[in-house]
UniProtKB/TrEMBL annotation:
Pathway: Carbohydrate metabolism; galactose metabolism. Keywords: Carbohydrate metabolism, Isomerase, NAD. This is UDP-glucose 4-epimerase. It catalyses: UDP-alpha-D-glucose = UDP-alpha-D-galactose. NCBIfam families: galE (TIGR01179). The keyword Isomerase applies. Its cofactor is NAD(+). It is an enzyme of class 5 (isomerase). Its EC number is 5.1.3.2. InterPro entries: Epimerase_deHydtase (IPR001509), NAD(P)-bd_dom_sf (IPR036291), UDP_G4E (IPR005886). SUPFAM superfamilies: NAD(P)-binding Rossmann-fold domains (SSF51735). Residues 3-249 form the NAD-dependent epimerase/dehydratase domain. It comes from the Bacteria.
Amino acid sequence: MTWLVTGGAGYIGSHVAAALLGAGERVVVVDDLSSGRDDFIPPGASFEQGSILDGGLLLDTMRRHEVTGVIHLAGFKYAGVSIERPLHTYEQNVTGTATLLAAMQESGVTRMVFSSSASVYGTPDVELVTEQTPTAPESPYGESKLIGEWLLRDEARASGLAHTSLRYFNVVGSGLPYVYDVSPHNLFPLVFDALLAGGVPQINGTDYPTPDGTCVRDYVHVSDVAQAHVVAARRLASGAAIEPVYNLGSGTGVSVAEIMEAIAVSTGIDFTPTAASRRPGDPARIVASGELAARDLDWAARNDLAEMVESAWAARRKPSS
C-alpha cells in the first residue's frame, strides 16, 4: 500500500512516516513546510510540497503515487493561539480536512487515520478520560478537531470511508536522532530553548487546582504514538473492525513542575523555573485511559518520563552541536 501522510515533515508526522517505512509501507508526504522541515522527512518517503487547501495538488498526488490510504496530521495545532486566530484555525483544520476528503473521494481513496486531539474534551470533570467522556472543547483548535471527526463520520455514512481518529495527549520525546519538537508553544521546546540560551524556563500558571498548582498532563512518547498509527492504518487496510475514536493516553498524569524537575536531572542543568500567568485554553488536568487502543492498536506507553526527556534533549541538542 501507499500511504499519504499530510504534515509528514512535522515533528509527529515525520515519526509516523518513518514508522510506516519501517513497516514496509510506501509513503508520500504532503507538507507546506509552514511548521514542518524538509530535513525531518525520512529517507525513502516521496515529498510533495503544498497545502491541504490545494485540492488539485492533493488529487494529482494521490493519482500519481497511487495512494491507497491517508494519515492526516496536517493542521494548525496551537490551542492558545487559535483563540486569537479562530478563522485561520478553522480554515486550516476544517476547510483543509474537507478539501482532503473531497480529493480522496474523487480519487477513490477510502481509508483515513485522523490526528485528533485531547483538546476535544476541554476540561473534563473526571479522573480518567475515556472515549465515552463527553466532548466540550474550549478553544477553536479543539473545536476544529472535533469537527474533523464529524467530517469523517459523515463522509463514512455517505461514501463508506473507513476511518479512525486518534486523540493525542502531550506527545514528547524523539525516536529519530534528527527530529525534535520545534513548536514555539509546547513545553519541552520552550524549556530546552531557554536552557540552551542560558535563560530560565517559566511555568505558565502555578495556581491551578492540582496538587502542586501546575497543569497535569498525560505525556506519551512520539514513537509510541507513531506505532499506533501504523497499526491503525494496517487495520483499516485489512478491513478489520475498528473504533471511530481512540485515546492515546498513558493513564497517569505528570505535572509541569515534575517535568521541570525531570529536565533538570536529565540535562544536568540546575534551575528554578519562574512563574508566569496561565495560557488561554489550557485545562488544569487531563489524563486518559489507553485501554481501548491497547486492545486494538497494540498501544502502550513504553517509555517512562526520564526516557522521554533524555531522547528529546539528545535530539534537540544535536542541531546545535
